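Feature request, filed as a ticket because there's no other form

It would be nice if the structure record came with a short human-readable summary line next to the tokens. Right now we just get the raw output. Example of a typical job, pasted below so the devs can see what we mean:
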Amino acid sequence: MHETVRLRRFGAGLLFALLAEQTVLFAVPLLIFQLTGNVRYSGVAFALEWLPALLAYPFAGLLADRFGGRLLFRHANTARALSLGLTVGVCWYAPTLTVWALIGNGIVLSLLMAPVRMAVEKSVPLIAGPERLAHCQSLVQNMELLAMALGPALAALLAMYADKRLLLGLAALAFAVAGVCWKGLPNTQSASPPKSIRKDLALGWSLLLNNPPVLSLALLNFTINLAFACVLSANAFVISGVFGAADGVFGLMNAGAGALGLLNFILVPRLLARMSIYRLGTLGFALLCLGLICMGLASGVVLYAISFLLAMAGCALFNVFNRTQRIKAIAADHLGKVMGPFYLVNLLSYPLGGLLTASIGHEYGVQTLILAIALLLTIPGALLFNLTTRRFRAALDFPPSAMEATQ
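Raw output as currently delivered:
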């Protein structure tokens, strides 16, 4: 398969899968809030959707190393399409079970999210090669942002004229198409005979804990994701409940954040030509901290939405640094084994964020919670970011030492 065709099919499959995810993320919180009228249910649902993924990531990493990214991506997205299709049927024919069906489906999709993420991590080096790694990681980030733009925008438009359950049906179809797009892409399977699951899991944790830069990055991601988990789990409530805005505003805000993917697509290659990957990461970290603080202080929906866009723009730039450097510091043969525990550590913040929203956010206000976590991220988090960059410089400037920590 020609390199250009391969890259396009990789990007198209990823975009379809992400569009489906964003459509679900748009429709489900609104459905639950409209049916219950309580932010507590949204926070609990958000937490329950992420807990299974945390448990699945280490095992998904083993599957990625064993079977390769392409096979894992295709089978996981097919399973997601079937689960979501079944959920739509339950919501349609047994409407009294809608909330519980959505929560149950969220758990299933959460379990299947881990194999998809691990499949992408495993496939990027094969698609990009060492010379184009940062640019391909930027493409992955752009696909995520474009999905954030197109998914909620299309969903918000359709929601004005159609039942939100139809949006979930379209998402199921998009999951199925995503699997088809990856047919024929390169795939690498483990050449060594499989060890016991327990030994492979122990090896993955050992490699992570003995890799200082990647371990620091996982902890940094945890603090960032905690702040965004609180934001994402409560955005629908803040927009509709606190500021009294229409559902379309929620969709347009997410669409605006996703539209940053177009700007990111143009700017990142030029920024990388003018500054190091470390400076790009620093710029992104500063912008996301500023945006989160402004969200906590916002007194109206316009300022809140603009602050959200600023935070997401910073997150986009930071993630280019995040994704590029961690792959460089992990041995290719053990990428899945290490990335499974890595994801578990940094995504543990998502269910915690949902629980904080359901408890502290419900009691003292969501914006107060966002502001408190943003300040925590800005001050101690900045020290952790500095430590992380110094560790990556030390490891990647001296490859033999770095490889000793990943073998």
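Something like this underneath would help us a lot:
DSSP finds 16 helices and no strands in the chain.
Residues 16 and 177 are 7 Å apart (CA to CA).
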